[in-house]
């Protein structure tokens, strides 16, 4: 089964100004001819406040804008939140859910993640669902158990799997410079796909795109992408550089 590759750039709370963000997008434009868009989709996750302002420049590069988070609520008294419907209203068709920084720094539980996914399914927003284990969990041999637990919370909420992409992001590899080896990433992602096959269906498992995320760079992406269960990347730090486009073109 051949799946289209998908690369995400998660800017987190960066860069320091919108001027720098615009400069970065202009730099990327120079590399566009090296990208085969029939082979790779690209979604960019800027800070929420900038999403709508930057969206036209992102789309002009043939990329899509993706939120880094979304509320689990409908409109109402939820100070500081935004809804899945707010995103679609602004033509933002994607959001990350369950990034490890949301889980660890903002206390998001599996149940919160599941409610957010349910809301996006109801409204029709595409989700990049982030899962992954901590170093302690990996060293304790619990990697597959943790991924299954995080997925099991969400699976009952998903009616339309064509609107879900998974990002396997081992927490110990995020922002640390310690990338998983291609073998580690492949072994874990194969286990994730096998779990989806059993818990959902073979058809969904075959079609589901699974990104790897965690210290991906232009230097390490070429080998990772040769693995059959790696369908692209979710990139943090390296997506803030002009050389992000080297990752995109090596994938596509
Ligand atoms: C991320 O934030 O999702 C991520 C993978 O970060 P980094 O590439 O910096 O490890």
UniProtKB/TrEMBL annotation:
Signal peptide: none annotated. Transmembrane segments: none annotated. Coiled coil: none annotated. Homodimer. Belongs to the UDPGP type 1 family. Belongs to the triosephosphate isomerase family. This is UTP--glucose-1-phosphate uridylyltransferase. It comes from Durusdinium trenchii.
């Amino acid at each position: 089964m051949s799946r289209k590759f998908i690369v995400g750039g998660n800017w987190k709370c960066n860069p320091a100004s919108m001027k720098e963000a615009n400069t970065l997008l202009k730099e990327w434009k120079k590399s566009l001819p090296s990208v085969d868009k029939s082979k790779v989709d690209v979604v960019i996750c800027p800070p929420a406040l900038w999403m709508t302002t930057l969206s036209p420049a992102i789309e002009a590069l043939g990329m899509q804008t993706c939120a880094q988070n979304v509320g689990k609520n409908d409109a109402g008294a939820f100070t500081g939140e935004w809804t899945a419907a707010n995103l679609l209203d602004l033509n933002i068709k994607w959001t990350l859910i369950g990034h490890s920084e949301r889980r660890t720094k903002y206390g998001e539980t599996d149940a919160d993640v599941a409610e957010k996914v349910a809301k996006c399914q109801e409204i029709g927003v595409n989700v990049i669902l982030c899962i992954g284990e901590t170093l302690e969990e990996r060293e304790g041999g619990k990697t597959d158990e943790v991924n299954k637990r995080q997925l099991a919370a969400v699976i009952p909420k998903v009616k339309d799997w064509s609107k879900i992409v998974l990002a396997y992001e081992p927490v110990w590899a995020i922002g640390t410079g310690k990338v998983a080896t291609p073998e580690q990433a492949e072994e874990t992602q194969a286990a994730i796909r096998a779990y989806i096959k059993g818990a959902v269906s073979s058809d969904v498992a075959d079609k589901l795109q699974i990104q790897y995320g965690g210290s991906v760079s232009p230097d390490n992406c070429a080998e990772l992408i040769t693995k059959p269960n790696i369908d692209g990347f979710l990139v943090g730090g390296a997506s803030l550089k002009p050389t992000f486009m080297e990752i995109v073109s090596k994938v596509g």
